[in-house]
Amino acid sequence: MHELSVTENILSLASDHAQKSGATRVTAINLVIGQLSSIVDDSVQFYWDLISENTICAGSILNFNRTPAIFRCLACQHEFSLEARLSPCPSCGSIRNQLISGEEFYLDSIEIEK
Amino acid sequence: MSAIRVPVIEKIFSANDRMARLNYDRLQKDRVFSVNLMASPGAGKTSFILQTINRIKGVHRVGVIEGDTAPVTIDADKIIQAGMPAVQINTGGDCHLDASMVSDGLDQLPLSELDLLIIENVGNLICPAAWDLGTDVKLLVASVPEGDDKPYKYPNIYRGLDVLVINKTDLLQYIDFNMDYFRQGVEILNPGLVTFPVSCKTGEGLDAWIDWLTSKVKEKKLH
User: Fold this and answer.
1) Across the interface, which of B12, B152, B188 has its CB nearest the CB of A10?
2) What CATH class is the domain A3-68+101-113?
3) What is the pLDDT of residues B69-93, one digit of tens each?
4) Sheet architecture: strand order including A97-101
5) DSSP state letter for A86
6) Which domains does chain B have, with CATH numbers?
7) Strand (E) positions, chain A?
8) Taking the model in full, what pTM does it have?
9) Contact B126 A110 (CB under 8 A)
10) ipTM score over 0.90, yes or no
11) Where are the domains of chain A?
């Protein structure tokens, strides 16, 4: 996976917003990560501790808010979450489904001290 | 001193997405139709590109950006041998191309002389899915020997596709590949996805792909 580049992007975004807010220190980074975005938390955390050293984000905590992959059946409107593997709608068997959540990957907020 | 929460709500890939937008605008300016071609290693990406070039080279001029993790020019050499401009980008070990690498590639191609740009991404079914390059379409070359469970195991890449090519159909008779099961997985993730089963070995199915591609290239010239 590409966790190093991803982590660099997180650092750059968080540092920009921290500076704009006049922060002296960033204490936490709140991320929202969908189940389908194939990001490994531990790996991001590992890189984070390395690359945030000597930046305004040094020592900050990464919080991963995981959102499940949820499909809505286009035939019967039933909503169901992605379990072990992709499957047709468990209610009516249709394969016409729309993904309504699970692809998120964004920086929700940062916590700072001034 | 208590912590203050600062709302951000910004995509992690926003810097890449901005660069992708610039790439798109550059290609739009010269009316070059562009394809981000992804696949696992060995699915037949380069063969597919060469077959495509061979079939349209009398009519359209094609440029190719080749992404590789190692500093080799094996793929680019093949394209140049086929008579088309190609640029090799070495990602320095990275598992995918990003929009800024593609921007460097665009600098080295005669865009105003091209009708079609094919970007051969690094062979990988996970990482390339996350990085938008600014192309008109994202295409995946899947291949029969990889197995019929790939949409179920790599849902992300199938979600974002505009075109799917199923290569090596000549091997269907030798391999337990359940096409219905494969296509059901694709349909769940990406309903109505434009799909071309082909064999780069026998040429079967390539005409339908070429018809679709040339109509897109012409459409781009007009808009």
Assistant:
1) B12
2) alpha beta
3) 777 778 888 888 888 899 999 887 7
4) A79-81, A70-73, A97-101
5) -
6) 14-222 (3.40.50.300)
7) 25-34, 61-67, 70-73, 79-81, 97-101, 105-113
8) 0.90
9) no
10) no
11) 3-68+101-113
Please give the mean pLDDT across all residues of chain B. 93
Average pLDDT of span B14-28:
95
Name the closest residue on chain A to residue B153, using Cα atoms.
A85
Tens-place pLDDT, residues A19-70: 999 999 999 999 999 988 878 888 899 999 999 999 999 999 999 999 999 9
Q: Which two tokens stand for residue B31?
A: 């009316």
For Cα atoms A92, A94, A97, give the angle at the middle one, nearest 5 degrees. Answer: 115
The pLDDT of residue B16: 92
- Asked if residue B172 lies in contact with residue B141, where contact means CB atoms within 8 angstroms, the answer is no
Closest A-chain CA to B156: A36
CB A29 within 8 A of CB A57: yes
Note whether A6 contacts B12, CB cutoff 8 Å: yes
The length of chain B is: 223
Tell whether the model's pLDDT for residue B62 goes beyond 80: yes
Strand ranges across the sheet with B163-167: B86-90, B62-68, B116-120, B33-39, B137-143, B163-167, B194-197
pLDDT digits (tens, 9 = 90+) for A2-18: 788 899 999 999 999 99
Minimum-distance CB partner of A111 among B5, B159, B185: B5
Greater confidence (B24 vs A41) lies with B24
At A1 the pLDDT is 58
- List the structure tokens of A41: 């938390």
Give B5's contacts in chain A (Cβ within 8 Å): 109-111
User: A82 and A71 in contact (C-beta within 8 Å)?
Assistant: yes
Per the structure block, which two tokens stand in for A94? 């249709």
Of the residues A2, A21, A74, A87, the best mutation for testing chain B's interface (the one with the most B CB atoms within 10 Å of its CB) is A2
